[in-house]
């Protein structure tokens, strides 16, 4: 199978089985999504979704969050990984939004990565989810799954993987392909023991070709 054919197989499979794939973070507007994505770094979406309602209730806008004190915001984030840094990031992010962006969430990657707590991955998530821009956010799931399947070759960094993925996925599908790969990695192609027995991508997967299931399990 050529690389082009592999990509087409993956696209066809997900278009049929996950046509409406989307983020599992719960949000009502770009501000809420930005807060949720910052909190989600090295933390589960489930935990973030349990945490954000109280934050959004107390700080419903960037202006309100910019006025928050560390001591008042920290207790709402305590259960999230790295709560100290994320508390500082959220307050700093909100202050910069108010000072430099008139309280509005910018929709370009270069502008977003200026915000505290926002790296390239987060900026790609915001622009692709909110604005459906052809930006590929490469987290640990996307990096692992794309490498196992063979969508990326010898990509040793998230940026290298990102460049390959946006080269081969059609522009109009890149924002959706991120969700395909992350959800597949979260529930099927898991890190320690991928669930190849239930995976519909086996015919196109380089990992499976090298690690086929015993006949009794296939």
Automatic annotation (TrEMBL):
Reaction catalyzed: 2'-deoxyribonucleotide-(2'-deoxyribose 5'-phosphate)-2'-deoxyribonucleotide-DNA = a 3'-end 2'-deoxyribonucleotide-(2,3-dehydro-2,3-deoxyribose 5'-phosphate)-DNA + a 5'-end 5'-phospho-2'-deoxyribonucleoside-DNA + H(+)
Comment on bound cofactor: Binds 1 [4Fe-4S] cluster.
Gene3D superfamilies: Helix-hairpin-Helix base-excision DNA repair enzymes (C-terminal) (1.10.1670.10), Hypothetical protein, domain 2 (1.10.340.30)
Residues of the HhH-GPD domain: 39-187
GO molecular function, one term: class I DNA-(apurinic or apyrimidinic site) endonuclease activity
Family named by the database record: Belongs to the Nth/MutY family.
Cofactor (UniProt): [4Fe-4S] cluster
Chain's role: DNA repair enzyme that has both DNA N-glycosylase activity and AP-lyase activity. The DNA N-glycosylase activity releases various damaged pyrimidines from DNA by cleaving the N-glycosidic bond, leaving an AP (apurinic/apyrimidinic) site. The AP-lyase activity cleaves the phosphodiester bond 3' to the AP site by a beta-elimination, leaving a 3'-terminal unsaturated sugar and a product with a terminal 5'-phosphate.
Keyword Signal: no
Ligand binding ([4Fe-4S] cluster): 189, 196, 199, 205
InterPro entries: DNA_glycosylase, Endonuclease-III-like_CS2, Endonuclease3_FeS-loop_motif, Endouclease-III_FeS-bd_BS, HhH-GPD_domain, HhH_base_excis_C, HhH_motif, Nth
The keyword Transmembrane helix belongs to this UniProt entry's keyword annotation: no
Coiled coil region boundaries: none
Keywords: 4Fe-4S, DNA damage, DNA repair, DNA-binding, Endonuclease, Glycosidase, Hydrolase, Iron, Iron-sulfur, Lyase, Metal-binding, Nuclease
EC number of the protein: 4.2.99.18
Designated name of the protein: Endonuclease III
Superkingdom, natural source: Bacteria
GO terms, biological process: base-excision repair, AP site formation
């Amino acid at each position: 199978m050529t690389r082009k054919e592999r990509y087409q197989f993956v696209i066809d499979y997900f278009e049929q089985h996950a046509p409406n794939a989307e983020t599992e973070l719960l949000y009502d507007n770009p501000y809420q999504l930005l807060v949720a994505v910052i909190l989600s770094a090295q933390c589960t979406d489930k935990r973030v979704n349990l945490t954000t309602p109280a934050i959004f209730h107390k700080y419903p806008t960037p202006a309100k969050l910019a006025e928050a004190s560390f001591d008042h915001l920290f207790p709402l984030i305590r259960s999230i990984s790295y709560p100290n840094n994320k508390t500082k990031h959220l307050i700093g992010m909100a202050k910069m939004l108010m000072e430099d962006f008139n309280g509005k969430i910018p929709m370009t990657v270069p502008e977003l990565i200026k915000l505290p707590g926002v790296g390239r991955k987060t900026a790609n998530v915001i622009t692709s989810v909110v604005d459906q821009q052809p930006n590929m956010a490469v987290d640990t799931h996307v990096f692992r799954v794309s490498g196992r399947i063979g969508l990326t070759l010898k990509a040793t960094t998230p940026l290298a993987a990102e460049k390959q993925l946006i080269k081969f996925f059609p522009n109009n599908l890149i924002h959706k392909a991120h969700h395909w790969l992350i959800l597949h990695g979260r529930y099927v192609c898991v890190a320690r023991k991928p669930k190849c027995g239930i995976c519909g991508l086996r015919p196109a997967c380089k990992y499976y070709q090298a690690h086929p299931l015993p006949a009794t399990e296939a």
